[in-house]
Amino acid sequence: MDHDVTDVDLLRKRLSAFVRDRVFPCEPLLEAGGPAAGIQRERLRAEAREAGLWALPLPSELGGGGMSLSAYAALAETEGASDHGPAAVGSASLLDVTMLTRHGSPRVRTERLPGLVSGELRTCYAMTEPDTPGTEPTLASTRAERRPGGGWSVTGRKWFVSNAADADLVTVLARTSGSAGDREGLSLILVPTRSPGFRVVRELPVLGATGQYEIEFDRVEVDEDHVVGEPGRALAVAGERLQLGRTLRALRWIGQAQRAFDLMCARAVARQGTRGPLADRQLVQQHVFEALLALRTTRPLVHEAMALVAEGRDAQVEVGLAKTAAARTLQDVADRAVQVFGAAGLGPDTPLPSLFRTGRTARILDGPDEQHIASIARRVLRSRRDPAVVPGS
């Protein structure tokens, strides 16, 4: 479904009010985890459905809003101002819905997609392993072997898997043929978490935050048609998913950086000292300027990347630039906001500790800065050596 500029702007304003008035106040409870957090999350989801804000970028034929990726870009910033915004309004499953729509078997699409869009089913994505560099998926040691009667038996361990404890399904990267280091022979397999042999090993708090887990597969039996894409060709599907996922994260990080900036400006104007408001001090003004400069220069990079991804074009350079810049911007702006707040910015009365934590982890999540820097530089320099090669190829 196409949405004109007026529709998108109206939705953005409504979504902004919902995230500000309903999601922001619930963040401490949601971040604490546990049953109470789950109950509150379901309340928010019910309110989002009632407000007509549910699953806006998901397919309309499955109960979503049918919004195109290009139109949704402006909303991704808005809902992403809170880490809990996408889950509250039903767009957190966009990556999985997109992946399974394009690469899932007919049975998986029929049985799983409606539940993902409605929010009845929850998913997670398991790629990184404890003893394997996350930047080198070809070294994955998790294996899936063919069963005599058909299907697969999955054995291995993954960690830093988001929301694994609450997931109904996990997409796991496993080697189905070949040897460690081979690009071919890796497959993505959709595993129901209620299957015998699946276990959540432990929670892995990230700088004190909940939501990341280590999980184990002990000869978990999975049906043949739960392979996502072609067996042995996982990296193509994973690369497609990563490109969209990194761009969505970058948009949400910009939303969080804008939130930190707004908090900093409000503090500078309101906070009074013996020499007047903080806003009159040059060093505070420098923090405001540098933060605004980071936001204004990063936002166009991120939206350029999303435009290319939405068109289905190669955007590896643009996505790498956007992801790296957005992560840096969030960490930098949140850090400046903390500095302007002083001790209050370190405590529980503002979202700044959470925003700063997200900014710091963002520089490792979905590939560390160093990986993107090296990859993009190689492409650019290769294009200079060979004029026939464009930087994004």
Automatic annotation (TrEMBL):
Kindly state which keywords UniProt assigns to this record, in alphabetical order: FAD, Flavoprotein, Oxidoreductase
Cofactor names from the entry are: FAD
- Domain Acyl-CoA oxidase/dehydrogenase middle, by residue range, is 124-220
Q: Which residues form the signal peptide?
A: none
- InterPro entries named among the record's database cross-references: Acyl-CoA_dehydrogenase (IPR050741), Acyl-CoA_Oxase/DH_mid-dom (IPR006091), Acyl-CoA_Oxase/DH_mid-dom_sf (IPR046373), AcylCo_DH-like_C (IPR036250), AcylCo_DH/oxidase_C (IPR009075), AcylCoA_DH/ox_N (IPR013786), AcylCoA_DH/ox_N_sf (IPR037069), AcylCoA_DH/oxidase_NM_dom_sf (IPR009100)
Question: Which residues does the UniProt record annotate as the domain Acyl-CoA dehydrogenase/oxidase N-terminal?
Answer: 9-120
The record places domain Acyl-CoA dehydrogenase/oxidase C-terminal at 236-381
Give the residue ranges for region: Disordered. Answer: 127-150
- Give the UniProt family note: Belongs to the acyl-CoA dehydrogenase family.
Summarize subunit and interaction data from the UniProt record for this chain: Homodimer.
Q: What is this protein called?
A: Acyl-CoA dehydrogenase family protein
Protein species of origin? Streptomyces zaomyceticus
